[in-house]
UniProtKB/TrEMBL annotation:
MF term (GO), any: cyclic-guanylate-specific phosphodiesterase activity
Family matches, as Pfam families: EAL (PF00563), GGDEF (PF00990), PAS_9 (PF13426)
SUPFAM superfamilies tied to this protein: EAL domain-like (SSF141868), Nucleotide cyclase (SSF55073), PYP-like sensor domain (PAS domain) (SSF55785)
The organism of origin for this protein: Marinobacterium lutimaris
Domain GGDEF stretches: 263-396
Principal EC category: hydrolase
Protein name: cyclic-guanylate-specific phosphodiesterase
PROSITE patterns listed in its UniProt record: EAL, GGDEF, PAC, PAS
Limits of the PAS domain: 108-152
EC number(s) given by UniProt: 3.1.4.52
Key words of the record: c-di-GMP
All copies of domain EAL, residue ranges: 405-659
């Protein structure tokens, strides 16, 4: 700040260096005097100085005093009287500031004020006690409150009750210790709507270090928070059913393992029976609707603190916490199975869902997530194996069975290459003449350590693993080779029957494979019969019909195996290009004593005759069964009464000397 002493005429008596620097002039006093007196405002200055020296007033100010140097310079003068020892005015003390600096500060303050007022963030300034002194327009936009409504109040009117009290305690402790606080508050607008606010609250201190004001800058992050919550929900919840997902399930199970009480806690693994069939036949939308309905029913019968989760696909889990007894676990399972079995309306269809449930007990069967899931999975597969629509508790024996199944699966993958698989043939006999008219190829596995493995055990395993495709082609090739060899020893025509699996039937190249095998083995197509089950046809009727026609065009015979045990739809049957119906052994074993089996068998034979189809009865073991079937019009049969399944060499030895005649079907 510049300073100088004036006499009553405005002449400069003394000046500091700051004044010379301010107006960019050297120190000589006469030059300073000239610049002040050459101003257009100098008459006013001299007049006021005269009044000051006369004692009319003790001080005055001239806010805009322009002098000229190289360019105009606006100064602000603050003048006060200087008295001598006698009390008379001896000089005038003039304090000089550059008006440009003052103007610049005003401009900066105005710019800052505009920036704050038009900020995208809400700004609130309070006194040291938190009473509001200022808010900008953005605060009004976000909260709905105007300045007149909030001035003098603390911002506590924004509280929603959802932010914990300790957050506010930490906020005030931080600010009162002269530090900046950053955090998130869940606030309430004037209209009652809740919103999330990201706050930055800073203390303002004076030159003595005392808190004078508090400035809060905040942003409405409600959309961001909702997006984060949505992302978190997607990370932990299944979007289709709104149940907890696999990650959520594992977290709950880990927590339950670490906080189990005195009661019984159990993990239930649920798998819908035949869900894939529903998905494939009715479409994925219907499948999704079914899953949502199942989830809704599970929520209905499983209440907190127990939880329901969807692992994926058609697998669900239930965590039961601290129950009083094993019977309570059983009761929950009974409720689940009963509720899910109630018919469901999906579109125009009404379907019934069954479920297989595996149960394992926490802390008893296993103490970790992986072990419990493995146990529940084993128990669930046992439930499917014993007939589905039921539940099974895990037992230690299941581990041994699972280990054996894994070992067999591994060995089955190599059984074909090691020559452990072989074919035997069940003779098919003309019930009237006793002549051989056909043979059915049956697959056998002689395990190097365990010996013969039942087809009922390894065939489903081959189906599940997909090995049945390569094994099935080998069976077809071997059966046709053997049939070609058998032709050389027999005079009469016959057929070799080969069963097709579901996996083979789904193979789009099946017809080409059959044609290739017939060409490779040089076996006439009329000597080959392919057997399919009713279920294979119904699962995908249009594709099945097209494939059967392709096979029939090759000249082979088509047979329906185990007729009467599946769908037995006559509307489908009459459209199928099949020639043979095989009566299942379950209808034959109690003939002729069981009246129901007698009626069913007679009806099948009569129906086949009316449709122009050939009939073959399986499982004939007694002469009474033989005679009844013959009298009922069934011309061909197979079973232990005639022969057990035999290797090809024994078939040749036993039947090559006989005169074989084709059956009159």
């Amino acid at each position: 700040m510049g300073a100088c002493l004036f006499d009553s005429q405005g002449r400069c008596l003394a000046a500091n260096r700051a004044l010379s620097a301010l107006i960019s002039l050297p120190s000589p006093l006469h030059q300073l005097s000239r610049f002040f007196l050459d101003s257009a405002s100098s008459p006013d200055l001299v007049s006021r100085l005269g009044a000051l020296f006369r004692g009319d007033h003790a001080a005055f100010s001239l806010p805009y005093y322009r002098i000229h140097n190289d360019a105009p310079l606006d100064l602000e003068l603050h003048v006060s009287a200087v008295h001598d020892t006698n009390g008379n005015v001896s000089a005038a003390l003039v304090l000089v500031t550059d008006e440009r600096i003052h103007h610049l500060r005003e401009l900066e303050l105005k710019q800052f004020s505009n920036a704050v007022e038009n900020s995208g963030s809400a700004v609130v300034i309070t006194d040291s006690q938190g009473r509001i002194e200022y808010i900008n327009s953005r605060f009004t936009d976000i909260s709905g409150y105007t300045l007149s409504e909030v001035i003098g109040h603390q911002p506590s009117f924004l509280k929603s009750g959802n932010t914990p009290g300790e957050v506010y305690a930490n906020l005030w402790a931080t600010v009162l210790s002269h530090r900046k606080w950053r955090g998130t508050l869940h606030n309430r607008r004037k209209d009652g709507e809740l919103y999330w606010s990201l706050q930055s609250i800073s203390p303002i201190l004076n030159e003595d270090g005392k808190l004078t004001n508090i400035v809060s800058v905040s942003d409405d992050i409600t959309q961001l928070k909702e997006h984060q919550q949505q992302m978190e929900r997607l990370a932990f919840f299944d979007p289709l059913t709104d149940l907890g997902n696999r990650r959520n399930f594992r977290d709950h199970l880990e927590e339950l393992l670490h906080s189990r009480g005195e009661g019984i806690s159990a993990l239930l693994l649920l798998d819908l029976d035949h869900f894939k069939k529903i998905n494939d036949t009715m479409g994925h939308e219907a499948g999704d609707t079914l899953l949502r309905s199942v989830a809704s029913r599970l929520r209905f019968c499983i209440n907190p603190p127990h939880t329901v989760h969807r692992l994926g696909g058609d697998e669900f889990t239930v965590l039961l916490r601290n129950l009083s007894s094993i019977d309570a676990v059983r009761n929950y399972c009974d409720d689940i199975i009963e509720l899910l079995a109630q018919p469901l309306d999906i579109g125009t269809h009404q379907i019934q869902v069954t479920v297989s449930v595996g149960i394992t007990l926490l802390g008893v069967d296993a103490v970790d997530v992986s072990g419990l899931l493995r146990n529940a999975d084993l128990a669930m597969y046992r439930a499917k194996h014993v007939g589905r629509n039921t539940y099974q508790f895990y037992s230690a024996e299941m581990n041994a069975e699972a280990h054996r199944a894994l070992t067999l699966e591994h060995d089955l993958r190599q059984a074909l290459d090691r020559g452990e698989l072989k074919l035997v043939y069940q003779p098919q006999i003309d019930l009237k003449s006793g002549a051989l008219v056909g043979i059915e190829a049956l697959l056998r596995w002689n395990h190097p350590q365990e010996g013969p493995i039942s087809p009922a055990e390894f065939i489903p395993m081959a189906e599940e693993t997909g090995l049945i495709v390569s094994i099935g082609r080998w069976v077809l090739l071997q059966a046709c080779r053997h049939a070609a060899k058998l032709r050389q020893h027999l005079d009469a025509p016959f057929r070799v029957a080969v069963n097709l699996s579901a996996r083979q039937f789904d193979d789009l190249g099946l017809a080409a494979t059959v044609k290739s095998v017939l060409e490779e083995t040089e076996l006439p197509a009329s000597f080959l019969e392919l057997e399919i089950t009713e279920g294979l046809m119904i699962d995908n009727y249009s594709n099945s019909l097209m494939l059967l026609h392709k096979l029939r065009d090759l000249g082979i015979t088509l047979a329906i195996d185990d007729f009467g045990t599946g769908y037995s739809s006559l509307s489908y049957l009459k459209k199928m290009p099949v020639q043979v119906l095989k009566i299942d052994r379950s209808f034959v074993q109690d003939l002729p004593d069981d009246r129901d089996d007698l009626a069913i068998t007679s009806t099948i034979i009569l129906m086949a005759r009316q449709l122009g189809l050939q009939v073959l009865a399986e499982g004939i073991e007694t002469s009474e069964q033989h005679q009844f079937l013959l009298n009922s019009g069934c011309p061909v049969g197979q079973g232990f009464l005639f022969d057990r399944p035999l290797p090809l060499e024994e078939i040749i030895q036993r039947y090559s000397q006989e005169t074989l005649t084709a059956p009159q079907l």
